[in-house]
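Entry type: protein chain
Record version: 2
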Amino acid sequence: MQFTEQKKELAILTVEKKTVLGIVGSPRKGGNTETLVDSVLAGASEYGAVPEKVILHDMNISPCRACNSCQKTGKCIQQDDMDILVDLMHKCDVWVLGTPIYWWGPSAQFKAFVDRWYGLDQRLFQEKQIVLTVPMGGENSNLARHTVGMMKEICNYLGMELVETVIAAGMNGKNSVKENRRILEDCRTAGLRVMRNILSRHRQ
């Protein structure tokens, strides 16, 4: 019975071709952050989602200049890869965000990306489903509280839903998370759960 119901849900999502966007905020390619994001995308793919992924370090995204031109014109004065990323963000109902913890906060690449949200039409963010993945070297997951808290407040402010947060503490090596099956399964489950959440919204 459960298997039959899951097949029905999968059929609905496949017809809709939901795209899930993974955004990797670590400068370290193939490291813990990217692995966590990939695992969430894999879980979402099991429900028929089409995965997209961008690596912020590979993109030209300049920091916010605080010039407030966007408040007058409705568009950022800077011409860089943020425009490409915003197009992807528009077409995806689910964003899988990943950042390591650097000095209790997110990476510089991730923070620059989020700061640029200031100049975007806030309708872009409303009702987006967010999965946050946070690897860190420290053993105490509480050390991620500032980054997680920041994203919770931003989601609340912009009308997004932070559906899942996966914190991977004690990940000191580049590939440490690949040896932790529990964390990888948590990410996969998060991907499944966020797609079920999308499905429940579809049924309403």
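Comment: The chain has a mean pLDDT of 88.
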